[in-house]
């Protein structure tokens, strides 16, 4: 997003009349650097802070409030750009910089152009963010570029996470409260997964399916995501206890293997994953209940992740439903 905003601004400066000092290459470079740096800050606030602030509001309300905040930020950024150029390029004082900015900022033509430009930029940016979140980070770009029009076989780390004791919790809370409980549970889990590079494949009730392309560093990210998800729930423990009377726990199954990935759908296009690896991971997660474990991984995954001996315990060869042969499973002690 920062690169996009910087490039757009650079094009605008070159094609639209600006103050005379923008004829200097140094002024344009200074402006671009400031735009890029400030865009990083605004992008962080927009994607992380404001998203969390308005996550329980409608999209329309979120758009209006975020746009208002971005307009204020845009005026501040423009003042900093004007001031920096006037002080460092024209070598005038801070007072003169403020005076000049006041003259520009309240000129009807300048103000109208800026408002239209900002409005178009902010709405477009927010739409891209919403679309990206709708498909999960990175998926929309894969669909846009047609990466998976022809199905591909990829080696992936797959993780299935679901809520422990979901049935008694649902009976205790009732339909509406249980839905709110699940929404908050999935929100906390998802933040941890995305933060550590996980590609969320789908939500099914209280279950989250996520994957990483197989690389050594991603096996570590997978473990870090699991630990972070648990920390997120612990940090919100008092909130969950106060509002719902209990703190959610989850069960996890992790496996590694080949997955067929391809684009699917007509009205609602998406990236689908299929294959034995997906089915096996689902069975491993189900085995958590049968074996009274929270976190279970396959031998294939254990052999490719940097874990100390005491962090796993063999559960032996386990027969999984739908599998012709048993596989060795390990419980995680983290």
Helix run count:
12
Largest sheet: 8 strands, mixed
What's the total count of β strands? 8
CATH topology of the largest domain: Alpha-Beta Plaits
- Our count of domains comes out at 2
The CATH class of the largest domain is identified as: Alpha Beta
Overall average residue pLDDT: 82
Unreliable stretches, pLDDT < 50, 5 or more residues?
none
Verbal overview:
The protein has about 325 residues and is of the alpha+beta class. The protein has 2 domains: about 1-135, no CATH class; about 140-330, Alpha-Beta Plaits, CATH 3.30.70.1230. The chain has helices at about 1-15, 25-55, 60-90, 95-105, 110-135, 140-145, 165-175, 175-195, 215-235, 235-245, 275-290, 300; strands at about 150-165, 200-205, 205-215, 250-265, 270-275, 295-300, 310-320, 325-330. Strands 1, 2, 3, 4, 5, 6, 7 and 8 form an 8-stranded mixed beta sheet that branches. Helix 2 (about 25-55) packs antiparallel against helix 3 (about 60-90) and helix 7 (about 165-175) packs across helix 8 (about 175-195). It is elongated and about 75 Å long. It starts with a helix and ends with a strand. The model has no long low-confidence stretch (mean pLDDT about 80).
Characterize this entry briefly:
This protein is α+β, with helices and mostly antiparallel strands. The protein has helices at about 1-15, 25-55, 60-90, 95-105, 110-135, 140-145, 165-175, 175-195, 215-235, 235-245, 275-290, 300; strands at about 150-165, 200-205, 205-215, 250-265, 270-275, 295-300, 310-320, 325-330.
